[in-house]
Model the fold of this input.
Amino acid sequence: MSLSGAHRAAFRREVTQQGQVFAIRDPAGFPAPAGDDGRRAVPFWSKPTRAQLIVQHVPAYGGFEVVPIPVEEWLSTWLTRLEQDDLLVGVNWAGAKATGYDLTPGQVLRWFAELEPDVAEDTRIPTGQQ
Done:
């Protein structure tokens, strides 16, 4: 597994445990840098310490503050807005250039939906008996 892949797996696991995601912002707002393909991504981290490392060690993000966002709000409000604005979701960016894995908001929503048990499973009518 690549380092970016490991950060992606950790993101999913840690966000579920923490119940929050963490963004960074300065007085101008939340960053959304363009990747090599020209698409912009807003970065999020699964732990405040991961985000703080970027603020402390990546000059472009010096002076930013770490902002906690409840995961329910992030999934329902933030991802909808990011999708409307055609932005990607950066997960657990790391390193001297703050790079990592980017996903579409739809991919992230499906990713987290897979973790929720299907409570309606027992109430479904078997195929052919409708």
